Amino acid sequence: MLVESTTTQHTYNFHRLVPKATEVTTVAANATAIANVNSNSSNINTVAGDSTEINAVAGNASNINSVAGITSDITSVAGISAAVTAVNNNSTNMGLNGTGIVNGVFFSLTGCIRYKLL
């Protein structure tokens, strides 16, 4: 602390707190990051407001990772979605075992969808 005193006891003209040089250097080294935080404050506030949803996603991380591991299968099914819909619409005609062939694709509705070209 820097203090400029007067001739009157306990009376001061001026005082100033002087920061530690290392702290000033640390802040200066992060000036760009600090400016980025300032310019993104609305996004930061939006994320803070979505913390419930973020925690819900974090709680489902294993399911998300499972789906991420089968993206090629998901893409394959997306490519034959019309056939999947046709099987679903005709599932009662397939008998008790829930299998059938639609457009050259074999389907089993007893737990998972399997497919192969005939």
The string of secondary-structure elements, in order, is: EEHHHHHHHEE
Structural class assignment: alpha+beta
What is the count of structural domains?
2
Seen as an oligomer or otherwise, the chain set is single chain
| Strand content bin | 5-15%
Separate helix tally: 7
Distance between the termini: 86 Å
Explain the overall architecture.
The chain is of the alpha+beta class and 118 residues long. The chain folds into two domains: 1-69, no CATH class; 71-118, no CATH class. It is built from seven helices and four strands, in the order ββαααααααββ. The protein has helices spanning 21-29, 31-39, 41-49, 51-59, 61-68, 71-79, 81-89; strands at residues 2-5, 12-16, 99-102, 105-108. Strands 1-2 form a two-stranded antiparallel sheet. β3 and β4 (105-108) form a beta hairpin. It is rod-shaped, with a radius of gyration of 33 Å. The mean pLDDT is 79.
